[in-house]
Amino acid sequence: MFQQFLSRYTDHALTLLRIVAGLLFMQHGMQKLFGVFGGFGGTPGATAPLFSLMGVASILESLGGLAILLGLFTQPVAFVLSGEMAVAYLLVHLPRGLWPIQNQGELAALYAFIFLFLATAGGGRFSVDHLFFHKGRQQT
């Protein structure tokens, strides 16, 4: 009974997860790309060098986060971002220790799996993808 009650809100929960994850992720990119929210490396106004690994990450995180927030090309974008976070975990966090709590990789690990979920689930009913790509189709 409780499961039946909650299952009515699956589309809403998916939408909230997508929007919140996209908004928070986009802020990481904007921090590196534009030096806002405390700046790159915690230095106000500092930005990541554009033609560097962190510069590429800043673009992926800013534009990818916005696309996820809107639910635009959710599945391919989420797949790429999941890969980005897996690489970030392997290159940056894993050398500091095995466990995410130890190597400060919790966010990278969580984002990797949230985006992997979104890559399989899609943007949901309340997304730009649904608006443009499911117009006129029957709901199943």
Largest sheet: none
Count of DSSP E strands?
0
- Terminal CA distance: 22 Å
Radius of gyration: 17 Å
What's the number of domains?
Answer: 1
Could you explain the architecture of this structure?
The chain is mostly helical and 140 residues long. The chain has one domain (11-127). The protein contains seven helices and no strands. The chain has helices at residues 2-7, 10-34, 53-70, 74-93, 100-103, 106-121, 128-133. The longest helix has 25 residues, at 10-34.
Short description:
With 140 residues, the protein is mainly alpha-helical. It contains 7 helices and no strands.
Topology:
Layout: H1 2-7, H2 10-34, H3 53-70, H4 74-93, H5 100-103, H6 106-121, H7 128-133
What descriptors fit this protein?
68% helix, 7 helices, 140 residues, globular, mainly alpha
